[in-house]
């Protein structure tokens, strides 16, 4: 029985699956290049704590990938690396999806606090 490998795409590239003989012909040259770049970032990070720090593996790589952006928390505009062939830097991953929850939860919390305060004030009036 053959086991089918179903992993998230980034995991496939991070572990070099495009170079595994069982998957010969299933990945393009661009995808193999992407895999090398992702392995470069990961190995740099594991070695130094910085995905941009070039150590021995990176120096042997045929080309360097664009620098991974520093994570600097900002008001919903955190930088991230898009895992596509060109590996562009982007900002605000799923910002619209997350803003619903952050705004909704905040307004729900505010409403609950106001209701709680109102209930406590009514209770104080009754006991006075």
From TrEMBL:
GO terms for biological process: thyroid hormone generation. It holds the Pfam family COesterase. InterPro entries: AB_hydrolase_fold, CarbesteraseB, MHC-II_Gamma/Thyroglobulin. Keywords: Glycoprotein, Secreted, Signal. Residues 9-101 form the Carboxylesterase type B domain. One of its GO terms (cellular component) is extracellular space. It is found in: Secreted. PANTHER family: HLA CLASS II GAMMA CHAIN (PTHR14093), THYROGLOBULIN (PTHR14093:SF19). This is TG. It comes from Cervus elaphus hippelaphus.
């Amino acid at each position: 029985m053959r086991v089918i490998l179903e992993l998230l795409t980034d995991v496939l590239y991070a572990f070099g699956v495009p170079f595994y003989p069982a998957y010969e012909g299933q990945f393009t040259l661009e995808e193999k290049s992407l895999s090398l770049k992702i392995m470069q970032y990961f190995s740099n990070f594991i070695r130094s704590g910085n995905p941009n720090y070039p150590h021995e593996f990176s120096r042997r790589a045929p080309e360097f990938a664009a620098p991974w952006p520093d994570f600097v928390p900002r008001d919903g505009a955190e930088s991230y690396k898009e895992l596509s062939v060109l590996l562009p830097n982007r900002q605000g991953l799923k910002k619209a999806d997350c803003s619903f929850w952050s705004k909704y939860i905040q307004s729900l919390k505010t409403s609950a606090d106001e209701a709680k305060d109102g209930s406590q004030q009514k209770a104080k009036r009754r006991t006075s």
